[in-house]
Amino acid sequence: RYALEHWEADPYQALVFHRGALTPGQQALVRALKPPADAVETANLSVTTVDVSAEMSPDHAAAWKEQPLDAMLPRVVLRYPRGTGLRADLAAFPLNDAAAWKVADSPVRQEVMNRLGEGQSAVWLLLESGDKAADDAAEKLLNERLDYLLGVLSLPRLDAQDIANGLVSVGQDDLRLDFSVIRLSRRNQDERTLVAMLMGSEEDLHGLAGQPMVFPVFGRGRALYALVGKGIAPETIEEAATFLIGKCSCQVKEQNPGIDLLF
User: Model-level pTM?
Assistant: First the structure.
């Protein structure tokens, strides 16, 4: 709850590489990457156009150098927030394909956001491996363990000073212990940005792509860490759940585990 109310999500970067002036149609596609600042919903995304025929900053020049020599321009390159330390591109594609990628929003992300906004403690994303038996087993274990934990865990007690200090804006009776699971196929084209984001959130996950993965998501869309394959176990699920509902041991976001997702 503290994370939901206080932790602003770190911005992702969308670099739009082009050569020469953008056409009006291309400018509209760039604007569509992110809802306008005065919209009801916006996104933790900064969008920057970079003309490769002009002088570029060292950072932009290095990012452009990583692109294929035959890359079609304009080209969108998505990058993780700087604070993550993740330097590999999240995704890259022609600007004309940006709408299909659903960069800033997607149905699963809407559902996660809705559940967290309604007060769920965490939404557990189960990223399928493609092996139905393994994925079904992971989902069964996860649901059974979360159901058990809902019966034995309890939220820490708030005191009046916590509320007076603005730790959270609601009273004890308005907090609830609640978990849910969303299963996500890697082949879901509407969710390709989310899948790419999760798979790149830790540097070694691509090498484990043949196994189901679970990502507990909390706050304003922060993934705690990945549970992978045999790591999806009763004790690791309990460890993550206990951490997520525990009293804040450190209120500084950067000193807690996890990575902000693009919402």
Answer: 0.90
